[in-house]
Amino acid sequence: MMGYESDSQLSRDPAQFTSGSHSLRPHPIQSSQMLQLRHTCQNGAIKSRETQINPGKVIQGPPKALGLLQVLDPGSSTSPPLIVREKESPWDTFKQVFTCKLAGTVIIAVHKSRPSQLEAIRAYSPERADEVLGVFQVTRHQNVLSAKECYKDGDELFVLVDDLPLTLEHLATLHPDQHQVASVIFQILNGLHHLVETGFEHTCLTSSNILLGSDGVVKIAALEYCIQRPLGQSQAPLIKSLAVIMMQLMQSYEMDDGVIGVDDMERWPPYSEAFGFLEATSSARSIETLMKHPFVAKQHRPGELVGLARLAPIATKTFYTYRV
């Protein structure tokens, strides 16, 4: 056999056996040549397979119209840019499941190719589309409703937003205690302060327009009611709205004739921090001033609201429309 010595020759040369092995050692020179040849052939075969298997990137799926993709910079290095898909409908990607009233109408949809993925989608009228898009572009705060992605289909604007299942209306019926009320007000103040600092005023700040997540996070929603305002403008309307929300949290309703106070003085005595904060809303001139009040000055965690957030879907109702 070419490249190997005969058995008789190998038997006379013990050095050609490898210790502990039952295989025969080939001739050194011929073995090296064959290994080199084999290595060259293998490399050629690998390159040939790579050329056949990976000729380039392959895009699979049905043909799709290509829209213009915009990336709007939120102005913060810590926030991801807001993606706006021009001339593209969200219903090419998502399927509507139901709609409900949560700080306006929200559409709950599933991803067509990944049905386990739920998304909350809000639609905005053509008259307000550009203004709402501007608000979402610059307001990126944990206590303000955030946009994940936007679709512009004709004159309509669709926004994928945070999916929060409750409002403060649900919470108010469960009689939160002082710590829980403080957690809510603390988060609202933080969200309002962010809106003011970015040049916006929320003109319809109500319990029904503030969302609550199952993790206890509170977010100011209904951002279509945000209008641009100069920094020096009076914040009295915001503070008055905040006082009404707090009365609803403390006793489920507000006082008549614009009076700021509570009827249940046993549950909310005048010396309590909650009552003191409510009283302070009648004289405070700014959101920033209220943020320094002892009632909310301490760090309040959203986790304080988790128990009530779990109870609310059982104890309350939400208006919805299910699409069959």
From TrEMBL:
| Organism, scientific name | Aspergillus awamori (Black koji mold)
| Metal-binding as UniProt keyword | no
**Record domain Protein kinase: where:** 104-296
Whether DNA-binding counts among this entry's keywords is no
Protein name, UniProt field: Serine/threonine-protein kinase pakB
Q: Where are the transmembrane segments?
A: none
**Polar residues compositional bias, start-end:** 1-22
Task: Give the span(s) annotated as Disordered.
Answer: 1-27
Recall the taxonomic lineage recorded for the source organism. Eukaryota, Fungi, Dikarya, Ascomycota, Pezizomycotina
Keyword terms: Kinase, Transferase
Cite the GO molecular-function annotations of the record: ATP binding; protein kinase activity
